[in-house]
Amino acid sequence: MASKAASQKTAKVAAAAISAAKQTIKPVMSRDVNEARSRVKNLYRAWYREIPHSVFAYQLDITVKQGREKLKEQFMKNANVHDVRAIDLLVIKGKMELEETHNVWKQRTHMMRYFHETEAPRKTDFLTKFYEGQ
């Protein structure tokens, strides 16, 4: 009797899990890929227009052209993301970063961190680490 009740309970839990999985996942902001794509383009344009202001406000040791190249590089890192919800979350994070940058809530070192990532990656083989003392 106890095993029959346990199996019925397991069946009910499994049915509930299946019905929950069948429900559609609500979008964060965009309804489809095209709408998410337009949000990404708008964010890119906003950042593109912000670069000259940021270079001047933070007194960065880069040119506007270098800033815009870095912007393109940052956006191309996520070019392979196709999930609408993930794209929306990235857009939300990008808008928050834009607001922080525009309002000068960051410090100069926070801005320059983006440009240190462009440096060539060091070799990770054993001899290089050994010679560098790591």
Walkthrough of the structure:
With 134 residues, this protein is an all-alpha fold. It has six helices and no strands. α2 packs antiparallel against α3 and α2 packs parallel to α4.
Mean pLDDT, rounded to whole units?
A: 84
Number of strands: 0
Gyration radius, rounded? 24 Å
Along the chain, the helix and strand elements come as HHHHHH
Identify low-pLDDT runs.
none
What share of the residues lie within helices?
Answer: over 70%
Overall morphology: flat
Q: Give the helix tally.
A: 6
Strand content: under 5%
Decide which structural class fits the backbone.
Answer: mainly alpha
Oligomer: single chain
Calculate the terminal CA-CA distance, rounded to whole Å: 65 Å
Q: What's the helix and strand layout?
A:
Layout: H1 2-22, H2 33-57, H3 64-77, H4 84-102, H5 108-116, H6 126-132
Helix pairs in contact: 2-3, 2-4
Summarize the entry for a quick read:
This protein has 134 residues and is mostly helical. The chain is built from six helices and no strands.
Overview features:
71% helix, 134 residues, flat, mainly alpha, single chain
